[in-house]
Automatic annotation (TrEMBL):
Family matches, as Pfam families: YjbR (PF04237)
Organism this protein belongs to: Solitalea canadensis (strain ATCC 29591 / DSM 3403 / JCM 21819 / LMG 8368 / NBRC 15130 / NCIMB 12057 / USAM 9D)
Ranges in coiled-coil conformation: none
Organism superkingdom: Bacteria
InterPro entries: YjbR, YjbR-like_sf, YjbR/MT2646/Rv2570-like
Name used for this protein in its record: MmcQ-like protein
């Protein structure tokens, strides 16, 4: 996985925006204003993805490239390194899970607005 492919996957999803809310380095992808992916422009070999707590632990135990995300609630966020043996399909699947998890947590009215886009 590289930052270009990650960005392409993110922005292809419904209701997604990209922005730099923290600084000029942390590129954040949001769905309807809620963050689901974060990557550093200066170190584009790691991204942070939201994850269900049980699955987050499972992935950290199974893959050396997955750990609790830096500066994030480690119960709900994993950092995924691209420099290991993970396939692009694995990372894309976890990205989709992150997006779906955030969408599921949106209020019904906002989900309806998103579906109308």
């Amino acid at each position: 996985m590289n930052i270009e492919l990650l960005r392409e996957l993110c922005v292809s999803k419904k209701g997604v925006t990209e922005e730099f809310p923290f600084d000029n380095d942390a590129l954040v992808f949001k769905v309807m204003g809620k963050m689901f992916c974060l990557i550093s422009i200066s170190n584009p070999t790691v991204c942070s993805l939201k994850c269900e707590p049980e699955k987050a632990i499972e992935l950290r135990e199974k893959f050396a490239e997955v750990e609790g995300a830096y500066h994030m609630n480690k119960k709900h966020w994993n950092a995924v390194r691209f420099d290991g043996s993970l396939s692009d399909n694995d990372i894309a699947s976890w990205l989709n899970d992150s997006y779906d998890l955030v969408v599921a947590g949106l209020p019904k009215k906002i989900r309806e607005e998103m579906n109308a886009l």
